[in-house]
């Protein structure tokens, strides 16, 4: 079976053609990608300390695809989890379709606010438990073990009706014109209850609208856009601007941002002939949040360096883990009460020439038939407070909650 690449389609068509369980979708401010079917799967069973091995696997699978008659440049698409001890989901699709960016402006009001399903909601951990976790993180920072640790929480939503993943994807795309909207099929797994008797499998999808580009590569050009330091938006314009100004001048948030920028720049330098790192961050916003942002750009030292190689060298950044990274990761494993899975991992693509784009998997949910797991995290540094980090994670839940048709009242 030969794969094919199609480019003469509209971005709206690609969004409309997305199908749960069989498609990979990624919309950025520059392009839209829909990949369907599976031509080949990249073996990635647990690759801690074996990043070169996964790169070798990807290279071989892409070479094999080209030898078997793939049309155009074959690509790998998929998702990589936060913890390298767990397998990634990377495939060469059977069909790839590209288009320009989605025309968000003309869509206002076209996708209705369907009545939300009735959901049972369970926070994991509870708000009080999360504040206790932040206290633990602050204690480790005060002891001098850490400069920063990112601590997360989740919401488990259960519905009596099957989740309409394509509709949620459209809702996220419409409200995320400046970011990266994605849907990636995850490996099937047996239902822990029904599976014992019937072997019933469930569709799993990683779905989200991330504001953060981990890294992109085109030829010798490399760009990373780390975000760190956040504040919730306000519907009142004056208050919204006040919050933006307060974020930009916040010593605590500027410190948190500087830690991330230093780590990203240090990770990219060995690959680059030149690297430009702005001295000052800028402000960007989504519908729900303000963020401190820095665009780091450079020229690679060799065209053989791939976007996936760069992404693996960067992942996980202090924006989603902390610093020093090994100690922060260990603290997360000891403090957090749930397994992150693909949350704070990465989603994206890489072609056989090494070009590609990888997005940080935040503002996302894992959807599984009748349930969703929503995730949100906050960077804990000196000056953080448990109540402040709880409020920040609550604000970050709004991206997914609004797409579902719920509001933050369910968090109370």
Automatic annotation (TrEMBL):
Molecular function via GO: isochorismate synthase activity
Domain Chorismate-utilising enzyme C-terminal: 127-396
Keywords on record: Isomerase
BP GO annotations: salicylic acid biosynthetic process
EC category name: isomerase
Endpoints of the signal sequence: none
Enzyme Commission numbers on file: 5.4.4.2
TM regions (residue ranges): none
Catalytic activity as recorded in UniProt: chorismate = isochorismate
InterPro entries: ADC_synthase, Chorismate_C, IsoChor_synthase
Similarity remark: Belongs to the isochorismate synthase family.
Protein name (Swiss-Prot/TrEMBL): isochorismate synthase
Organism annotation: Parageobacillus thermoglucosidasius (Geobacillus thermoglucosidasius)
């Amino acid at each position: 079976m030969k794969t094919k690449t199609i480019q003469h389609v509209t971005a709206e068509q690609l969004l409309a053609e997305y199908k749960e369980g069989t498609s990979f979708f990624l919309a950025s401010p520059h392009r839209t990608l829909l990949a369907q079917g599976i031509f080949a799967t990249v073996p990635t069973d647990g690759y801690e300390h074996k990043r070169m091995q996964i790169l070798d696997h990807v290279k071989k699978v892409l070479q094999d695809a080209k030898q078997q008659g793939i049309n155009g440049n074959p690509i790998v698409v998929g998702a990589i989890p936060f913890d390298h001890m767990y397998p990634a989901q990377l495939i060469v699709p059977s069909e790839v379709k590209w288009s320009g960016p989605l025309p968000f402006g003309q869509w206002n009001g076209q996708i209705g606010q369907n009545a939300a399903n009735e959901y049972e909601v369970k926070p994991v951990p509870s708000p009080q438990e999360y504040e206790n976790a932040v206290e633990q993180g602050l204690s480790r920072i005060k002891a001098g073990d850490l400069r920063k640790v990112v601590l997360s929480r989740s919401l488990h939503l259960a519905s009596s009706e099957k989740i309409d993943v394509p509709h949620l994807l459209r809702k996220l795309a419409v409200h995320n014109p400046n970011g990266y909207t994605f849907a990636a099929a995850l490996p099937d797994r047996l239902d822990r209850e029904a599976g014992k008797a019937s072997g019933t499998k469930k569709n799993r999808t990683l779905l989200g609208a991330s504001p953060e580009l981990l890294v992109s590569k085109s030829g010798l050009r490399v760009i990373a856009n780390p975000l760190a330091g956040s504040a919730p938006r306000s519907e009142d314009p004056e208050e919204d601007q006040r919050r933006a100004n307060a974020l930009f001048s916040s010593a605590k948030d500027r410190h948190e941002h500087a830690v991330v920028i230093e780590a990203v720049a240090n990770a990219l330098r060995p690959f680059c002939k030149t690297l430009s790192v702005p001295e000052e961050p800028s402000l960007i916003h989504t519908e729900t949040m303000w963020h401190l942002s820095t665009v780091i750009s450079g020229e690679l030292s060799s065209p053989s360096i791939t976007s996936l190689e760069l992404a693996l060298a960067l992942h996980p950044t202090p924006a989603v883990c902390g610093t020093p990274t090994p100690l922060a990761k260990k603290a997360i494993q000891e403090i957090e009460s749930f397994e992150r899975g693909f949350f704070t991992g990465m989603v994206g693509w890489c072609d056989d020439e090494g070009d590609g784009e990888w997005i940080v998997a935040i503002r996302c949910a894992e959807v599984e038939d009748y349930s969703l797991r929503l995730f949100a995290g906050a960077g804990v540094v000196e000056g953080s407070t448990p109540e402040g980090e709880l409020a920040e994670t609550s604000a970050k839940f709004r991206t997914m909650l609004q797409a579902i048709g719920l509001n933050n009242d369910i968090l109370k």
